[in-house]
Amino acid sequence: MSALTDLPPLRQSLEAHGLMADKGLGQHFLLDLNITRKIARLAGPLEGARVLEIGPGPGGLTRALLEAGAHVTAIEKDVRFLPLLNELQEVSDGRLTIQMADALKVDEAALTGGHPVAIVSNLPYNIGTALLIKWLTGPYRPAAMTLMFQKEVAQRIVARPGDDAYGRLAVIAQATAQAKIVMEAPARAFTPPPKVDSAVVRLDPLNDRPPEALLGALERVSQAAFGQRRKMLRASLKVLGGAALCDEAGIDSARRAETLSLDEFIGLAEALQRAEGAR
Questions:
Q1: DSSP character for 38?
Q2: Which residues pair with 200 in a beta bridge?
């Protein structure tokens, strides 16, 4: 094989290696190259760009990213896929680096030489939310993210006040990035088909994101508020100051979490910082 186009179809490669998805690892394969190419386009332009991919599995999206001209670092936990990824690496013109590791524990900065790179992934369902929070709030800040989630999770990321899906994830995501659902994918597009549809979210980090300390306070406030979302703020935020905290932020403590705007949550976080600074 001398080029990406010489590779056999993904389904054929999986059968040749006797590989099946591991539900315990949240694996659902995207084998349709039309879909993976569309994801790559949504993340683009990628010619010469550096990309981090989490959970490449058999390499369907990886192929599309390489076709688009990207230099890809792929992080995979399941060693069963190493032979398939090695085959892909052989025809990648040196543009594919494979790292066997747990994405939740990996040091992205070390892998990318400290450069912000785009993350493009069909994320494993069972760790997708945890990875997103890590990238939004941790020390490593991606240049952009184009990520496939379960549709329900995607809706939680972009939800607005008053939406049923509005919660802590929306607050943290929208405080740190511009988030938009850019594509939906039915369950039948995957092998094996999951029980739910999926969606791709594009996240572009904000330049004026909250400072680290304020972001930490925002995480605590939103977690407490939505942890008891049916209660009034005076009750759900009791451990952080309750009605007094709301008064300090100029917010009616009889309101519930799902009615608060992002700016109001940031106001509560700032009030929490002031209260704790005064102790």
A1: H
A2: 148, 183
